[in-house]
Amino acid sequence: MLVQRLGAPSDFDPLLERVRDARVVMIGESTHGSYDYYRLREQLTRRLIAECGFSFVAVEGDWPDCDRVHRSVTAAPGGALEPQLALEQFERWPTWMWANAEVARFASWLRAWNVERPEDQRAGFHGLDVYSLWESMQAIFDYLGEEDPTSLEAAQDAYRCFEPYGKRVEEYGAASRFVSARCEEEVVRLLARTREHALNDGPDRFSAWQNAEVVAGAERYYRAMVAGGPDSWNIRDTHMQDTLDRLLDRYGPDARGIVWAHNTHVGDARATDMAADGMVNIGQLARERHGDDAVALIGFGSYRGTVIAAPRWGSTPEPMVVPPAREGSVERRLHELMPERAVLIFGGDDQPGWVTETADHRAIGVVYDPSFESWGNYVPTRLGDRYDAFIWCDDTTALHPLSVPAVPGEMETYPAGV
């Protein structure tokens, strides 16, 4: 194991040497609201794009919202001249995950980087998640209305299937368990039609296809979520990995992607108690599909600090104090052993035993209650098996949300907020 103290961006040199040949680099976070994670992740991502030629960033966010950011950072026709304007249009709660000053700074850098390059060499920004059923449906309507009005019927049939439930997709999920209210057939027909269009080249066609994939994934997700168990989680992470693979195909045989998501998605589930519960995640799926050597998984963690989170689903986010990590945890051990900031690169014959031993590893979602720290908010983890590298920040501070309205989601996701 190599330990490198972090101070300047150049201190990432050993980590870049470790991951520069990977096809996929996934960079996690143990909270969705810590400034230090976003800032360090930005520094590392800039270098991966500028020095290693990575093709795009794909985040744990909705496709339609992130597509507006993509159009801005690639200077595509119709895209906002300032990426922050695209980020300020994020409306689905929790908006602060991506509509924050830290992402706005990175997006501005990415646009400046891109405009100096030919269009086919510009790095993109995309969303991987599955939640945006209605937004993706509207995007499909907009596309078909302009490009292929004869195909609107398939989209209208799918829309009418969901329409009785309004935007309360949990009611659709509940109804689908007892009556023939499932929209699978209409959604499958819509997906097949948009796939046909996507065979022809063009970013708008690809985006329409991806929105149809989101509608199909969301239908499965919300139906499974009502039933309980791990199925909804697995549907979501499989959808995110499928989206990542479509992006790699879209960008070409030499494409390389960077993923930003929570540690619970990035860190290989097989090295946690998630495996015993029948759950998979994108870190595991990427290793299985592309091979361990082609995938680099990087986690984040801290001992204490402050974080932006919400006390309840859909409520207003606020700065919260993250108490010192509990005894026996990964974070307590690293607090005792590591400098204030460091990167750990796993592998080799000199790894200490604790790297592969199971210990509790903190995971804070968008919904957080610090009083749960004594019994919750931790995932049993074999750190060196879950990640290829780990970025340590002993003390963290809360990130800076943009001033955007926080519109509650349809219902709480499972598990909450990661």
TrEMBL record:
Q: Note the InterPro entries from the entry.
A: Emycin_Estase, Hydrolase/PRTase-associated, UCP036794_erythomycin
Under the heading Pfam families, the entry gives: Erythro_esteras (PF05139)
Please cite one Gene Ontology biological process associated with this protein: response to antibiotic
**What PANTHER family is this protein classified in?**
ESTERASE, PUTATIVE (AFU_ORTHOLOGUE AFUA_1G05850)-RELATED
Q: What is this protein called?
A: Erythromycin esterase-like protein
Organism, as annotated: Micromonospora parathelypteridis
